[in-house]
Every structure is written in C-alpha cells, then in structure tokens.
Amino acid sequence: MPTIVAKISNFSNSFSGLNGEKPLRVTRSQFLKYAMTSGIQLFGNSKVRPERAITLALYKALGITCSLDFSGPEVRRQSSFKNLDQTEQANLSTWVGMAGAAFLADQILDIPQLFHAGALYKDKKLQMLNSQSRRIADLIGTDRSGRWHVLEAKARQSKPSNKDREKWKEQAQSISRINGSVPVTSSYCFSKIQNSYKIELYDPPAKENEVEFIVQDEISLINTYYRVLLEFIYEFEARTFSVAGISFKLAGFDLENNEFVYVGLHGRVFKALINEKIPSQIKPFEEGDIFVASDGVAIATSKYPNEIEA
Asked: How many domains does the chain have?
C-alpha cells in the first residue's frame, strides 16, 4: 500500500503529540472517497439535484486520481500532470488540496465529516457575524469529542513563499468562534504536488478577531452532510443493491482504469439518519473492491456493472 508523508507542526497543548513526520498509508480508493465527499459538500446545496452533485463530484475526484500515481510505494505526481494547461493544473491542484485536507482531518484530527464553509454560507446554513471580509477559511468540522476545527486547504507544485504562508495562516485564523465555541485548532493544510506527494498541516497560534460563525444544530448539519448521498442512493431503490451491509449505486465509469465507480452508505449510518440521530463512528475498512471510511461513506470500484466483490 502506498504512503503519503504528512508533516505536522506547531500544534500545542493536548494536540502537541501530533507534531512530527508521519507516513500514512492510503490507496487510490481511499483518496477517491475523500475527493468525492469534498466535492459533494461543495456542489450539493439544497437547490442541486443529487445526481448532478454526484456527477460533478466524481468528475473532480477522477481528475485528482488521474493526477496522482498510487501504484508504487509512495504516492507520486503523474508525469502527464506537468503537460496539462496551467489553468487546468491550478484547477486540479485546488481539488487535490481539498481532498488532502479531508484525508488528514480524518486520519490525524479525528474529524469524520468536514464541511465547506463557503458552500454552507451560500446555502444560508451558516451566518457570519462581525465580518469585514468575505474571505473565510475553507473548511470546518467537529472531531469525535465535539470540538470545532478550522482548516484552510492549499496545494502547489512550487515552493510557497513566506508571504504565501502568512496569508494562509491569516485565513486559517479568520474564525474566532463557531456557535460560541473557540476552535481548538485553526490550521492550514498544504499539499505539495511534486514528484512525491506530501502534505503539511500547520497550526498557527490563536489570533484575536471578531468573526463568529453560527451554523445549524448538530443533527441538521449532519443531515446536510449526507443529504445528497441519501437521496441519490435511495430515491430509485430499484437501481440500488446491497453488499456487506452497505447500499451501493453506480455513480460513473472510470475510463483511465476501465472500471465502474459506485458510491455507498453503511446501513448503520442510514438507520441513524432516518431516526434523526447522530451516526456512531464506523471502523474504516477496505476489503475486495470496497473502502468504507469513518463517516460510513463507501466507495467501490469494479470491472463489472452491479457486481462488487467484498
């Protein structure tokens, strides 16, 4: 299984034990899942049909996994990536940064559901108080202990300047409170898309400002996270099939790897959502064609239609 080296720095107090370099194991299916859920959070507002949100998210996710090579001992940039138009490189880099931040948030900070703050604001599910600027940090989420975290996601092929890093720190520090609570970390997550793909997670000291977020109550926010998947998977149940307690539906086809891509949801998560409860943590696992993450969202790839090996 290939690895991504994560450099964690400047975390303090109860998070100081995270500091250091860590090789994190990851597969293409795992990264595809984090890319998909990142895309769904951005595209899946209440006015967008779930099929369209899934299509757009998969389009971005497949672009990412075609940009990175997962076949060796470490994740590397595909040689063809450098031949792309600069605008397209920048576009894909943005999405690599988002997926990398979601991956690290789950693996390092124990944040299973990560939300795109701008998308919540646009969908009127987040209010900003005392803000003089429309530039806010990219991502917010709570860990398993209910503590808020803020992340700014960045990605580059070249080395960032000190000025760049200072701007990233300012964006990460842009939110002082969420629902009255001070975020326990406000980090920037930088994906270095070079020959070897590496990720940095840096937590600058807290900074006083007046910007406060007011977001939905926890159950409403969780429902927002899963809405697109629930509607997509269960709206036309004749096209849905179950494998190992997970309901799957075909999302698209990956021409690069000649395989079908399915998205799914763990049955335990579905039951909790239907009963308006917070889903319990799912132990991540990867078996056969299937990867299930801690949020209960599953990705499966298969050479055959409607046939997944568990």
From this structure: 2
